[in-house]
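Homework-ish question, so no full write-ups if that breaks the rules, but can someone show me the predicted structure for this set?
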Amino acid sequence: MHNSLKRITGAIAVLCLVASAGLYAADVPQKGGTLNVGLHIPLPTLDWQSTVAHPLPHVMGNVFEGLSAFGKDFTAVPELAESWQASPDGKVWTFKLRKGVLFHNLKEMTSDDVKASVARWLKVGPKGPGLTTLVSLTTPDKYTFVMNFSEAIGQSLLLTLGSDENKCVIYPKEVCDASPKSGVLSALVGTGPYKFVEYKEDQYVKLVRFDRYMAREGVPDYQGGRKVAYLDQIVFWIVPEASTRVAGLQSGDYDVITDLPATEYDNLKKARGVVPIKNGPGILMYMMFNHKTGPTSNVYIRKAIQAALDIDEVAAAAVPNADFRALDPSFYPPESAYNTSVRSELFNQANIERAKQHLQKAGYKNELITYQVIATNSRNVRIGVAVVEQMKKAGINAEVRNYDLQTWVTKRRDPNSLMIYSSEGYWIDPSLYEPEFTGTFPSKEVAFSDPAVDKVFKSLAQESDPQKRIRFGEQLQNLFFEKVATINLGYTYRLVARTDKVMDPEGNLALGNLTLNNVWLKK
Amino acid sequence: MGAYLVRRILAFIPTLLISVTLIFVLTRLVPGNPVWALIGHQSVSEEKIAEVSRELGLDKPVIVQYLAWLPKALSGDFGNSIFFNRPVVQVITERFPVTLTLAGLAMLLTLAIAIPLGILAATRQNTFLDHAASVFSTLGVSLPTFWLGFLLIILFAVTLRWVPSSGYRPLSMGFDQWFPRLILPVIALAFSQIALLVRTTRSSMLEVLELEYVTAARAKGLSEGKVIFKHALRNAFISIMTVIGLTFALSLGGSVIIENVFAIPGLGQLITTAATRRDYPVIEGGMVYLTVISLVVNLLVDISYSLINPRVVYE
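A: Not a homework solution, just the prediction itself:
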């Protein structure tokens, strides 16, 4: 009897050990497997340096790396740079490069590659010309790269170089030399944890693990820190139809799917084996005006619209799922260190009387004010309809105009067509607003420009001290509200989803664009 | 017949010339710029847009672009796709087998179901079978294709997991990869075609079955099978053939909705994506391809009339 008890106890102990080992094994990252991603949009090119197009970071962010990238808190962190230092006058930036980093063609990355890449990005990149005060690029040694400026430049440099939107990624020098044109690369060779294998236009992009990838030391930090490639292969399938992506996730054809309407959240929550993920940072939905001609060039008309809007109602129309919208007066997302309540009294006023007073000051004579929307973008249409209805309540003769995307972009640049449009994006740092609000975007004939705003941008460009930058961010927000440069229509969050066999211990799938380092598949 | 064919083929030339000119002009008249899709339209300076437009030769006047393009286009060279950096003809040639497979299989399924069902409905007029066929064809014509597509996906891919939900694999990857992914899109595409063809077959057959020569054939004591298949169907087939030809020509142009719902990289998807991002060479090449397909299929349908019915003679 005693022996039997011992045997039973022993067996139970062994079973417990096996079970706990199994549980432990289930939590320990494993290498292997193919991750199938259902991507929502085709790629216009694979040359990240030459485009700000949205899908590039999702795919090529796993292949290419830059000097700097974004960490979990959306501040600049080193990626291929070991460290950086600005001279006391802010005119010379010295980047010490990581040693032993290999390109996918097994050539070591050196300062020559960095210099050639930055030079190419300055030429072909939409964001490259933004560095107007850059004087020269030098390479004192194999692992040192220097940027010389005619005026002081601050942290903005790192954000510009490392922004997902047209990142200054590093290609081998030979590739840069052989690829002078935008959008055309002689070879797709990067330094990232995954290397490019195949691209079938509008169908799929295939990546495999780069076994010689040299990860940084330390802890993972979204796009920076220690990046480990666990997956054997990643295939990005281009599936433009959201319902097809959802069905594909549920049927097991895809492991991760991107960019879903927030209305799918509740369905996905109920589905077996599927995990919906709210992805941030918050994306600002905003309204822009023709600042140069027509009724909206009158600041009192803009103030009238600002006063009339019930943002609660507009945001609810735009994003029906309350979990995926946020009312926040700041022009910097709730996740940004710059998020501020400065001039929040001018946000979400819903004050028809005040709007009417502004209209009177403007001398408004019932001129038609058109609001152009993208017919194929249902959120954009819903925002337009909601805003126009509220403008009408304030006595503004407003009308929605529907266009396809390309026509919408054309009209947006045309001073004779544009009055109001809305769009969305996230500006985690105030300096990132500069291209939109310095008199050139979307065209010189309609763009917002203001000397006080220019001055703040200049200060932001030159300043590296975080506290001072926060003050400049507040000044910018104050001016945006005061001049009604734009109107904040609330924030929305993206919805992505994964199956429960996809393990994402660092929470990368909840941050920005798809960053698949440290993501692994449970067997 | 030979002279007729030569005349018809010669008539293709002015038709094509007018078509390509119209296609070019209309494509360029529509507002937009492929550069916005290529490098982005958000926070990109006008100078950068102009620079890339220059690189792509889009800064030249439309007439200059047209005169440079026309001789090449007439020889089948539509230039390189702005987004794929490859000749348009190569891109279309790659997508054509996908669309042909989808259209071909859907047509086979349509013929296999619609013609027998249409004949049965006509020969058993006002019976349960006839009413069932009518209900089916009304449903088929009225159900939106995208809705049916999703319904099929939810039932067979998500719930039952019998077939993959979407995507396309070439036959070179193996039959087991290729065929299962085509089952649902083929059914979805064929459904409305079957409905249309059942209706056409039924009404054409009913019309013919009432004619005197059919009564005469029956009076002669011919079997019902011979009366229907040898005498009635052959005469009814002229209008059936017209519908088959039109439907097939339309599917060869690529079913935009089916290709989008099932993420199939066919011609419909290629041309609509090109239109969305203003990939002018692909739009132009694709539209010329559609024109040629339509001309050729119409010619083949016309030829088939004389083969089906010897009384149809082309001089």
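Now go work out the reasoning yourself. Hint: DSSP finds 14 helices and 21 strands in chain A.
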